[in-house]
Amino acid sequence: MTEKKDKKYIETVGRRKTATARVRGVESEKNSVKILTVNGEKSLEEYFKTEKQRMTAMESLVKFPVPVCFAITAKLVGGGSSAQAEAVRHGIARMLNEYDIKLRKDLKKAGFLCRDQRCKERRKFGLKKARKAAQWSKR
């Protein structure tokens, strides 16, 4: 935890494909845990259009509630909207892990602390796509 102007905050980074989320959780006096802003200007509902993406972004907080209230901000760069939602989930899970190490086992078991490495494979020389080749003819 880092202190800045007498407020404690935890800053972590979450990643998925080419999306990166810098997540900052500040302890707040309010009684709710929520993402206040995404990229400094939009709320969670404005930024993520579908309910599935909103649920994905907040999944680690919903499954593992903490007694302390956090006001969360996220800065997102790169990737698509679904990958950004998963990057936010990864960042929030890391923040919860840093806040309370006892949650690590449960977060790990749920798969929230593992960075999903799958990304698009590069195109190879002589092929049409990453693995697609021209049709082979025997004769």
Task: Write a structural description.
With 139 residues, the chain is of the alpha+beta class. The protein has a single domain, classed as Ribosomal Protein S5, domain 2 (2-Layer Sandwich). 31% of the residues lie in helices and 25% in strands. The chain is built from 4 helices and 5 strands. Strands 1-2-3-5-4 form a 5-stranded mixed β-sheet. Helix 2 runs parallel beside helix 3. The radius of gyration is 19 Å and the shape is elongated. The model has no long low-confidence stretch (mean pLDDT 89).
Shape: elongated
Parts with pLDDT < 50 across at least 5 consecutive residues:
none
Distance between the termini: 68 Å
Count of alpha/pi helices: 4
The ordered H/E elements are EEEEHHEHH
Radius of gyration: 19 Å
Number of strands: 5
CATH architectural designation = 2-Layer Sandwich
Content-based structural category: alpha+beta
Mean pLDDT: 89
User: How would you write the strand order of the largest sheet?
Assistant: 1-2-3-5-4
CATH class: Alpha Beta
Q: What is the domain total for the residues?
A: 1
Helix content: 25-40%
Strand content: 25-35%
